[in-house]
Amino acid sequence: MAELKLSESRDLTRIERIGAHSHIRGLGLDSNLEARGSSEGMVGQTAARKAAGLIVQMVKEGKIAGRAVLLAGQPGTGKTAIAMGMAKSLGQETPFAMLAGSEIFSLEMSKTEALMQAFRRAIGVRIKEENEVIEGEVVEIQIDRPAVSGAASKTGKMTLKTTEMETVYDLGVKMIESLGKEKVQSGDVIAIDKASGKITKLGRSFSRSRDFDAMGPQTKFVQCPDGELQKRKEIVHCVTLHEIDVINSRTQGFLALFTGDTGEIRAEVREQIDTKVAEWREEGKAEIVPGVLFIDEVHMLDMECFSFLNRALENDMAPILVVATNRGNTAIRGTNYKSPHGIPVDFLDRLLIISTQPYTEEDISKILEIRCQEEEIDMSEDAKRLLTKIGVDTSLRYSINLITTSALACLKRKGRVVEMEDVSRVYELFWDVKRSTQYLMEYQSQYMFNEVAMGEAEEE
To answer: Is the predicted pLDDT of residue 30 greater than 50, yes or no?
Structure first.
């Protein structure tokens, strides 16, 4: 059985996808919010990372809801990486929604509805509820099975104890089935929800730790509960406003979240939900957790979307909006008006702008080193130096793309370590933008639908 589990875990590791930013673990900042040279997959961009770390700190303290941040910089300067680092730094509790500016034009709903859903996906609600639970260590389980099958239902008794008391409970058929399903045995510490009858196995009692060699290494040991067996316990559920919207607006309830049948949600439903959540907040039953909404390629949005964002940011329950763009002075989509980053000036006024700078040669070398480790590729120092030089001359993205292809070239010649010859080979096979443009300039007349100026055509 142990061998079977081992083979399963190997298969899972093998099919894990390595993405462009899968090496990012956080923003790489120390306790004083100072950026380390290379940490948590992040390299360089110290000023931008410090600024992003400050935003993350304010998000955690709940001080910056309804603000907007713009990550502006050239292509390949780590804007999406910084946004991913922010998401990892915030942790699981804080909602983080991510979409590209072009996405909202391909959905079967209005642009403003798509943006509203994204906004509400980035706002969390922490709902607190008190439940009656029975919590104790199982001393003994006795189940009486009838001698003749079908003659009578199974009955039994279970003895539970805490450090102060011990009680015997009579068991019905459903409870016996639940205990069997959870594989509960004497020595386990369990919690039973009185309202639903759900059994949760909390772990194994420390008094049974001497039997450790009869268990696997994953066995969790816990102390025997103290006090009364029956107690009130506070349970916290974390959901997003969008999930509450879907559950309350669709006949199939929460199943709509899995089927993807969310569709457009009426404004009346949202108003009722907002009113109810406000009531819960006043009663102390719920707490709002403003998260982060990241919109990449924000220059793809049009005037209608920017107007909606202007209005939405003024809402009491708005999340932190982080947008990114690599455009300079360009036309706002759908208009002839030019504006910095393709964003209207009135919206730009609301933004805290974080600028990203081009990577230095040393930074490119470190990033390529991290990507080689992430993709589990052994590369010689000469090959890494050549890749770094290619990255400086062309672009970081192009040199990162050559890592996997040069590893395949190395595999073809039955080598184990990627050498300079492998990198040179794939550099000749796959062209970068500069060489491709130069080739087009030389042979443009031989391409179809090529726009050649009239003077040039007459000279030919």
So the answer is: yes
